[in-house]
């Protein structure tokens, strides 16, 4: 039987255990061990989705720097891109702007045996577009009316719809933006939209609350992931995702590798090929 973690009281007066740092953040060693275990389970879930012909749609939303990309990367790190696909659409083209709003998203919905991860989704309309003035108030109101019905249609068609909202505090967002700004290799992550989002933090809070008011429906509820601790947020989100499926281990057994056929053939000399410099 696994022993209980040793409980202590840190210098902030909060009860903690050995899994956490004095500041209450999950330790790297704990995170890495648990992430490895969860990623193994994601592979098993992948096989189960394939075998059962499930259609799974997972939506990731939240503020800039909230950690959506990090958890998506960990979900797909060990899984097959043929089964677990990422959809991250750019801003609509002039033609797409004249289409039914949901139209360009529909073609990316999962078929049988697939799990699709939307890195932002149709909820751009009720968040980024509304806050930044990229849509009219009428378009915003129509989205709030039609989105719940659209998602109910998806669920009735057999698609499993999971929606995660990554929630980051104003203080932590500021720290992450400053960290990006301080490192040239990360500065590309700090876009003009991020700067505008920072300035309009309260407005984005209003947008999120309104979105939840209309679209947190029984058939496709929102799940909030507190993400000030990125490591904990990733583990919590993936654990919850796995818990939504009563899956079994249907991974195929090891295959027998065939022997190389002995076919008469003389290869050209190696010196006729151009190799990259051996710097390492």
Automatic annotation (TrEMBL):
Annotated keywords: Kinase, Transferase
Keyword Transferase: yes or no? Answer: yes
Which residue ranges are recorded for the region named Disordered?
1-21
Q: What's a single GO MF annotation on this record?
A: polyphosphate kinase activity
The answer to whether keyword Transferase applies is: yes
Q: Which domain of life is it from?
A: Bacteria
The cross-references to SUPFAM superfamilies, in alphabetical order and at most eight, read: P-loop containing nucleoside triphosphate hydrolases
Q: What is its EC number?
A: 2.7.4.-
Query: What are the residue boundaries of the Polyphosphate kinase-2-related domain, all occurrences included?
Result: 27-250
Tell me which family the UniProt entry assigns to this protein: Belongs to the polyphosphate kinase 2 (PPK2) family. Class I subfamily.
Complex and partners = Homotetramer.
Chain's role: Uses inorganic polyphosphate (polyP) as a donor to convert GDP to GTP or ADP to ATP.
Q: What is this protein called?
A: ADP/GDP-polyphosphate phosphotransferase
Q: Which organism is it from?
A: Nocardioides astragali
Its gene name is ppk2
